[in-house]
Hints:
It is a single chain. The chain is α/β, with parallel strands linked by helices and about 375 residues long. The chain contains 9 helices and 20 strands. The protein has 2 domains: about 140 residues, Carbamoyl-phosphate synthase small subunit, N-terminal domain (Glucose Oxidase, domain 1, 3-Layer(bba) Sandwich), CATH 3.50.30.20; about 210 residues, 3-Layer(aba) Sandwich (Rossmann fold), CATH 3.40.50. Strands 11-10-13-12-14-15-20-19-18-16-17 form an 11-stranded mixed beta sheet, sandwiched between helices. A 7-stranded mixed barrel has the order 1-2-8-6-4-3-9. A two-stranded parallel sheet has the order 5-7. The radius of gyration is 21 Å and the shape is globular. The N and C termini lie far apart (about 65 Å).
Amino acid sequence: MLEEGKRRALLVLEDGSIYRGRAFAGEGEVLGEVVFNTGMTGYQEILTDPSYKGQIVAMTYPLIGNTGINPEDMESDNLHLEGFVVREYQDYVSNWRSRQDLKSFLESHGKLGVEGIDTRALTRRIRITGAMRGILSTETDNVEILLSRVRAYPGLVGRDLVKEVSCREPYRWKGGAQQKMPSVASGHRRVVVLDCGVKFNILRNLERRGCEVLVLPATATGDEILALRPDGVLLSNGPGDPAALPYIVEAVRALLGEVPLFGICLGHQVLGQAVGGRTAKLKFGHHGINQPTKNRRSGRVEITSQNHGFVVLPESIPGERETVQENLNDRTSEGIAYPALRAFSVQYHPEAAPGPHDAEYLFDEFIDAIDSKGETC
């Protein structure tokens, strides 16, 4: 028996796997790449992370919803994922910071939330087979129809999703909010952020360190960025296939050696391509707040927050570079430095939203590069 007011829902993967549940928020039908996130907390940050555009996210922790929603934990102004899957939705909120429950939050943004799915079996399937296209529907239980729709879905490879999440107009980030771009930028430590799907906590971290933060759309050219006379440029996180972004790679290539560069997640992948490297798709990606990385310089193991399905191939990068960090689960690249270019980048999220604060020092390293006034990093 279904609970009163809840509709049947089906999740069908491209390999024909079927998972049955019920909608706890919204209704309809969505397509996307199905991924799992291993975080026990932080679902609000996950929901509002633009990097999840084009994906259906399944949480491995079985109970979701008990901490509610609050304005302080927003990582963007919108929800970007296609659908949200949990084992069991908790509609009773027990958190003094909460201002809204998860159900109404999803519905206010037109997003479908489904519970009752065997997320343990789903996660095992993805780990064995790899990330797959999927369809989540409350509209029909005809598996053949759903399977034909999901197999016709193009997936993420080769698609530019950045244009769907980047800001449309430049703005200044100040006081924890977006403001009109000043006609004359005159702040100390002026940092231009190329918005490929930037999370607010990246901007908060820069502002806390005394930066004037100017955010430009991902379509900005190298000349447009340099015209603002930045002291440093941050290349943000974002969704989709980094190989589908030649216009961003071209813009970043024009910045090499001109100003200190710091790339985060998609920004790491764009920077890797700008210096001549290649990227590749991972089997099922890294999505969670417990990914161990090793800093080769310090020998220190750090626990990091990650959300990516593609990776830079460091062996494909010509010229001088240093592989600074690697993932201890699969040995993939997690951080590369280019000392002669005053540039470095990491594959994970040092802004820690959600996640541990082990890697927040990277923002301080970026500030040190800015303050060094042209000296090699």
